[in-house]
Design brief:
By secondary structure, the protein is mainly alpha-helical. The longest helix is centred in the middle third of the chain and has 30 residues.
């Protein structure tokens, strides 16, 4: 069985800065240009979920739940990938996950352009694939 400390993947500070900047940009872009849901920072979705639940706003509840579920799926994929490497006696390397993330972000961009997604104040059916891809 692997321990929590086994899952700590080290890397360069520069890569961490690029990843943080990318997450911030994607989060802000989706929130301002697609639909008001956070795709990179889940604390905002938890707050929105609580507020929407208190006001019984079904579409806002659904949007927060979709984002949280997608984020959870992405975390599970990353953790499973590291587990597979560790169980095989290999040191986890984030390169495959970075390639997957790059592919998903390109899919987000192509989805926005290809589907003609425009800003909507509540999440519409056309927004779901974009939000799911971005949160994973």
């Amino acid at each position: 069985m692997t321990s929590e400390s086994d899952h700590q993947i080290s890397g360069s500070l520069g890569l961490a800065v690029v990843l943080a900047a990318t997450a911030g940009f994607v989060d802000a872009f989706i929130y301002r240009r697609v639909t008001p849901v956070f795709v990179a920072n889940m604390s905002g979705n938890l707050i929105r979920l609580g507020m929407a639940g208190g006001q019984l706003e079904g579409s806002a509840i659904a949007a927060a739940l979709v984002a949280l579920t997608g984020f959870l799926a992405g975390a599970m994929i990353a953790t499973t990938s590291a587990d597979v490497d560790l169980r095989a006696g290999r040191q986890p390397h984030p390169a495959a996950l970075l390639y997957l993330e790059t592919t998903l972000l390109l899919a987000v961009a192509f989805s926005i352009v290809g589907l003609g997604v425009h800003y909507s104040p509540s999440m519409e059916a056309i927004d779901y694939p974009v939000v799911i891809l971005a949160t994973v």
